[in-house]
């Protein structure tokens, strides 16, 4: 049994998955259908998507699931105890309003959220729990704690750089995970990331600002997600690394969050809360 498995819920939560045909949507639906402790009650896609009206199991190339893909977010979310959402920032904000109205748990994996999106999510979280993380894996959330600790132990003569690599389809940079790691490094230094973040480098950038935190992004092929936090000093370097080789790790974390959130009050939570880290 996986460390994420949670079968001690007396009532199986009804889960709606948004972005059903996406890379994460498919992974989530596969895991929910395979777990007798869970119930898939809705699979959402955009209006006009060619999966609309089809059974989601057969659309994914598998067995009948008994749930038709729908573009009726209002109707689907009204029946949900949890909504798991890996889509786009604009879609996530729209789903947050509906999920709050339904008083359901909203698990958000979507990255690339800007301050206006986060403000809308904070408003929705006044009515129901939101669990949001740029990375839902156990490994990355452990790495966040390690990064904070190492940054706190080292002085500003150690330069901090976060380097990430993802598949060619990813639309946002730096990744949500890279930002989590950068925030942890800044916290370790007793500062906010906004105050330490290096601007993107191109052309004559000038020398590195002491104490700053830099980000670099690589995009190519089918890389699931790779993150290095590099602490570089004169004569030595420490590299903290996480390699994701299977999106199943993100889906397991998100499902665990959906179950964990069932008895929680309104508010914004993250995977540290869920995992008890
Ligand atoms: N926190 C974490 O652990 C992880 C986060 N992510 C993040 O999750 C997000 C999705 O990633 P991924 O699955 O790879 O991306 P995909 O592009 O494969 O999937 C996104 C899905 O969302 C759908 N979608 C977008 N807008 C809407 C809408 N308004 N209504 C309904 N569906 C919509 C897309 O449909 P269409 O194709 O028609 O646009 C697509 O099916 C990204 O932000 C990514 O960074 C990914 C992995 C892990
Ligand atoms: O888009 C992805 O694929 C991923 N996105 C998340 C991020 O932005 O960090 C998490 C993971 O790395 C995969």
Architecture overview:
- The protein has 277 residues and is an alpha/beta fold.
- 35% of the residues lie in helices and 22% in strands.
- A hairpin with a 2-residue loop joins strand 9 (225-233) and strand 10 (236-244).
- The ligand O=C(O)C1=N[C@H](C(=O)O)C[C@H](O)C1 is lined by residues 111, 134-135, 166, 170, 175-177, 225, 244.
- NADPH dihydro-nicotinamide-adenine-dinucleotide phosphate is lined by residues 18-19, 21-25, 44-46, 49, 86-88, 91, 109-112, 133-136, 176, 250.
- Catalyzes the conversion of 4-hydroxy-tetrahydrodipicolinate (HTPA) to tetrahydrodipicolinate.
- NADP(+) binds at residue 46.
- Pfam families: DapB_C, DapB_N.
Give the second-level CATH assignment, the architecture of the largest domain: 3-Layer(aba) Sandwich
* Structural class by sheet pairing and helices: alpha/beta
Small ligands present: NADPH dihydro-nicotinamide-adenine-dinucleotide phosphate, ligand LZUJQKHR
- Evaluate the radius of gyration: 20 Å
Q: What is the ordering of alpha helices and beta strands?
A: EHEHEHEHEHEHEHHEEEHEH
Strands across the major sheet, in which order?
3-2-1-4-5-6-11
How many domains in all?
2
User: Strand count, sense and closure of the main sheet?
Assistant: 7 strands, parallel
The overall pLDDT, averaged over residues, is 95
Q: Give the low-pLDDT segments.
A: 1-9
- Dominant shape: elongated
CATH class wording of the largest domain = Alpha Beta
What is shown here, in short?
The protein has about 280 residues and is an alpha/beta fold. It has two domains: about 15-130 and about 245-275, Rossmann fold (3-Layer(aba) Sandwich), CATH 3.40.50; about 140-245, 2-Layer Sandwich (Dihydrodipicolinate Reductase, domain 2), CATH 3.30.360. Helix content is about 35%, strand content about 20%.
